[in-house]
């Protein structure tokens, strides 16, 4: 009878597959983004990152809401893979968190990604 093998971590096994899973450990909140024209859209899962340098949204969402995009100010964003992207800016966009009497509206400037998807 052979002795049982001792299991130690890390177990030297070959990993030859990757499972892509949806993150469930990110805190999100529902909010409404409104334009100065009164158009609004409910966003069911908004990520709040108070430590971020900037807030981002798509060009498609800005167009959908009729929000003016400042095409004179040139901004660049450096992504995780070191690529640079030229981005425009929207100013003083109202964002409402919560509902009715239990709500808060803030004005936020957004960098606008060159993406037509809302």
From TrEMBL:
It comes from the Eukaryota. Gene3D superfamilies: Acid Proteases. InterPro entries: Peptidase_aspartic_dom_sf. This is Retropepsins domain-containing protein. It comes from Gigaspora margarita.
């Amino acid at each position: 009878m052979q002795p049982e093998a001792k299991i130690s971590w890390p177990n030297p096994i070959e990993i030859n597959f990757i499972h892509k899973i949806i993150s469930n450990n990110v805190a999100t909140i529902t909010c409404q983004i409104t334009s100065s024209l009164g158009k609004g859209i409910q966003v069911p899962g908004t990520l709040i990152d108070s430590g971020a340098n900037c807030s981002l949204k798509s060009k498609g969402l800005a167009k959908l809401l009729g929000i003016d995009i400042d095409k004179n100010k040139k901004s660049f964003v450096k992504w995780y893979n070191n690529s640079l992207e030229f981005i425009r800016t929207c100013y003083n966009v109202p964002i409402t968190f919560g509902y009715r009497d239990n709500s808060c509206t803030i004005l936020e400037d957004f960098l606008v990604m060159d993406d037509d998807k809302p």
